[in-house]
Structure formats: C-alpha cells, structure tokens
Please model this.
Amino acid sequence: MVSIWNFDAKIAFQDIIGATECFDEKYCIGIGGYGSVFRAELEGGNVYAIKLLHSVDDSIDEKGFHAEIQVLTKVRHRCIVKLHGYCSHSKCKFLIYDLIEKGSLASNLQEEQLAKELDWSKRSTILKDVAQALSYLHYDWDVPIIHRDIKSSNILLDLDFKAYVSDFGMAKNLKHTCSSWSTIFAGTCGYIAPELSSTMMFTEKCDVYSFGVVAMEVVMGKHPGDLLLPFFCRTEQHTELMDILDKRIAAPTRDEEKDIILLVLVAFACLQICPKARPTMQQVYQALTSRSRTTDIQKPLHEVKLQDLHDLCAIIRNI
Model:
C-alpha cells in the first residue's frame, strides 16, 4: 500500500479491512463507475472513504484507478477531494480519500429535506467552488487536466456545504495541441458536450459544457432536460426565469435575485453548442466572483425571460 499524505500505510491496510469487515455491503455508501465506496472509521476516530475497484481484472476499471492516482497525487486544491493513499495489490485495489460528510450534490438536490437546506446563497457558493476547481485543473498546470465527467453526483458537500470535485477516473492530461482524441466514450448522458457525439475529440470546453448543466441543475433543483436543446428548438424562449427556479426553497432576496440571474447567464454561456463560443473556466470563475460584475439586466427577477438571458450570455466572456 502506498501513502501519499501523512498516513501510516502499514497499519492502514489491516485497519481498513477490519473497519469495513472485508468490505461488507453494510459499510457501502455509494457505487461509482468503476468502484464502490465504503465508510471506514480507523483507530483514533478518523473516518475515510475507501473506493474499492469492482474488478481487478477489468482493464477499464484499471484505467480509471490509475487515472485517479495520476491526477490526485499531483493536485492540491481546497475544492478537490484529497487522496490519502492507495493499495494496488493484484487481488485488492482501493483508494483512500477524506470522507465528505453530506454526500453528493445530486443526492442533496434529490432529497426534499436536504434540498431545503441548500438556500440560494449556498447554491451560489457551491458553483463558485466547482468553477474554481475546474479553473485550477485547466490553467494551473503545464499540461491542463480535463475531468471529463463533471456532474452533480461527482460533486461532494461537507457539513459546511463546501463543494469538492471528485471521481477522476476519466480524467486526462490535455496535450499541448489543446485537444485530444478518445477511443472510449467518456462522460455521463445528460452532461456530455454535444460535439463529443460526433467528433470524440475532447477539450477543456467539454468540462465547461458539463459545468453549465450542473449550474442549471442547481438553479432548478433538477436536471434541466429539454432546456439543453439548442435554443431555437425550444418552446421556453418566452418563459420567465422565475418559473424554472427550485420552488422548494424560500424566494430569493434582492441581492440573491442578482446572483441567480448571473448564474443562469453563466450557465447559458457554458451551454453554447459551439465550443469556441463557450467561456473558459477562468472566465466563468471570474464572472461569478468579480466585485464589479454586471449582467446589464435591470429588470426585477419576475420580469426576466429566458430569451433575455440567452441574448446576453456572450457578455460572460468579457466580464
């Protein structure tokens, strides 16, 4: 077993096997694309999330396992889940992470009582955290890192509702040509950039599109569905923004109304069909956090239509 952070690898292996009773299903807290996640409380009360490979003989699972190790041994960011160590035995492969207590953004949005805890301020902050993490991956490395599977179930929340990007099993280093071909279809239906269905060529703008889907999901409280269709194909052009907001939480304050308008503007910019028309994640993060930000929309929220936001979304690249 290999330790990455200050972690006693020799003790940990037996402790993890004991704490999970040989990975008994009663300790399973989630199932991902290539591994199941178990809760393990070790001596001293420290609690970790252990991702166990579904199969040590499956080449795709193996690639996901090594992709996570390759990325997470390099990155250090407060909004990216921390990898403490891993075991790469021929009969047992697992990864050791911090346990992020509140689970995924998806599960929090799906459960009505949990969704009510996610007020507009928290939702805005969650999206800023994710945007910051993606900007870091895309721009703070000599060779950018593309996540390739951004979705609400891969964003984890702690007890303070701070967001962490997780599950790097499909992550790739982007070559200096700024794009890369993939022979394996990566991503999750409903979050995948439309160009991947025809070209199989991924760029950082694929992550940008997926972020746009998540942003709309956070605003609406559910997957945006038909709102992802090209705008001229939709019947919602004249729909008021108020009509698509998550009704399970209190109506926004005036300041929160401005934040919501900005979030949807950013989301629409990210969801542009043409990759070149989408902003970068740096531009997205700057737009969401700039003190001098403006949306050029002076109407109160109840008068804003989706058409208004679609017409203005290009300004995000200039904020």
Remarks:
- The chain has a mean pLDDT of 88.
